[in-house]
Amino acid sequence: MPLSRSTINLVFALVVAALGLTAAVSVYLRSSAPETASHMADQSRLPENRPPVDVEEKVAALQQMAAKDPRNPDYLTQIGNLYYDVGKYESAIEYYQRSLDIRPRDPNVQTDMANCYHYLGQEDKALTLLDDALRYNPGFSQAKYNKGVVLMEGKKDVRAAIAVWEDLLRTDPGYSRRAELESKISELKASLR
Known about the structure:
Layout lengths: L4 H40 L10 H14 L4 H13 L3 H14 L4 H13 L3 H14 L4 H14 L3 H14 L6 H15 L1
Helix pairs in contact: 2-3, 3-4, 4-5, 5-6, 5-7, 6-7, 7-8, 8-9
């Protein structure tokens, strides 16, 4: 049965419409792809310790939990950690201090707070916090390691940093970053000669 002219025109119109729709979808996908790729590139530039998170949303949720349980320092510490992870050190310090007001002798919180002060260039405050944490917890390796960092990077006192790190290795023979730290100490000693 031969096709009528109107049937041929209808088939042709459907083919043209399908091609037009395919082209429109392709253009749409291509125009949105660079934006997505750019967004992903921005995320990949974040340092590993600063994950792409909606900090304010998580902070709000933790603040609600802290309001319901105001004597629980862990919520405040978690808020401080979120701010620390995205480089908002002043805000992190505020929440770490509030946590320490509830649980004063927490070497993890004091060490993180000291790091914030170090990143803000307030080396004396950082060292005071680290020394305090080491007074009541002398074997706390992370505080010793960080004290060496503050002494070396912030105070430019390489000899004092080496002494702190050697003490760390002496008191914690199973220190997880031992080989790396031994290598760093050797490099620093060689640079002093």
